[in-house]
Amino acid sequence: MRLRHLFLWDMRFQAKYGFYLLYGLLTVLYIVILFALPQAWRGSAAALLIFSDPAAMGLFFMGAIVLLEKSQRVPCAFAAAPLHAMEYVISKTASLCLISLIVAAILALAAGLPHLPQVLLGTALSGILFTLLGMILATKITSLNQFILFTVPVEIACFVPAVLHLFQLLPTELRNYPANVCMDMIAGRSFTAAGILLLGAVIILLFYLAEKCVSKMWESAGGVKL
Amino acid sequence: MIQVNDLYFSYTTKPFIEAMNFTVEKGEIFGFLGPSGAGKSTLQKILLGMLPGYRGSAIVNGTECRHRTNRFYENIGVDFEFSTMYEKLSARENLQFFSSLYEKSGRPIEELLEMVGLQNDADKRVADFSKGMKSRLNFIKALLHDPALLFLDEPTSGLDPANNRMMKDLILEEKKREKTILLTTHNMQDATELCDRVAFIANGKIYALDSPHNLIMSKGATRVTYTWMDHGEHTASCPIDRLSGDEVLQKLIAQNRLKSIHSSEPTLNDIFMEITGRTLL
Fold first, then answer.
1. pTM of the entire structure?
2. Cβ neighbours of residue B111 closer than 8 Å, sequence gap 6 or more
3. Going from the N-terminus, what domains does chain B have, and what CATH number goes with each?
4. Where are the domains of chain A?
């Protein structure tokens, strides 16, 4: 029940803070870009767009959300409430993934990508991966500059291999790398069971780490200055 | 409601909280008084179950704090010194959101808003609230789930006299509802007026624990200070229970030569300084 309430409130916050409006405008812009490209490029361009923005938005928006909450000292209130850190993590991840899925579905349909369910599954898994990474980083930082700096290694580790993999510039041995598995799914390509298992294991590990980081952030924020 | 026995805690090898013992009864307003760095924040963290690595025992609402689960917070309300609200949401939205975190249905939001006079501002964004309005909103946020135990951290800090009075009345109203209240304040007047008992905390230890009245009376009786003119102004003082033996005062009264006379009793701050050797501020 509490998780459902949290999820609905997170959607409400995101709407209030303009996330839906922003992604409405970005979706229109992306569709214009896709239709400006030659037909042959649209599939790869759509996969690249979906992976680099709606799927990866959690990485950046979690920083903004957590920093905003920190600046308004909301974590202090969470620390003294019966809320579980995992409920917070799941709610934030699910609400951001919902935006990712809506935008990805529109872009995939506009670009005529085949295997829509696979594209959406890939977007959801990428969204979870990036949102959890963003959340873990956001709990450790105190300013937006710090966050931008901290996301650089994540971007290098996730985007560079995935983009190279999309254009088949990486050895096939690296196809099971989690970011590459996500890219394969979004691009409607085949992927291996081993790749999915590895991705699942990484996501479980990130959920565990995010829960620990959020708990720690609340504990340190919950102590009031007297 | 709260039992603390032989409580020790340390962030390093040096003890930060040492040999603390106290109990807080149901329906009592209990004050923590002490300067910054005295250990009040750490003690509050321990009682809120956020620092499980303590030695000794700290039982709150029947639960040993180190073994608390998240349900522990269903019966505790915390009013922080600062606002802990989403500034872009309205007062009503914030209260609805925080209320949804609890399983208990608690007190009606409209009733709480009316209680603190915010019913007409309920749909205003919290960012547009004054400090006094934010303090009142923060206070009722702690009451949403109708907890039996309230932690109030400097609830009157920075408030103008009207808001200060209103906040103190609200606290006393909650006492009438049999809430147990742990109050942390630097304001001696508030502590004297609100608290049934206060604990003087300094250097991680409790130096004294009693009712404000007993603490004041145990360390010094009320004194009478008077002035008169005799080739310049002179001042003298005398304990109130020995006035009849003060010959100078008797003579000045008989000759109508007193320029001023007033009685004064030591404040909690004076007593705190005398006992701990430190000031509260």
1. 0.85
2. none
3. 2-216 (3.40.50.300), 221-264 (no CATH)
4. 2-7+16-221
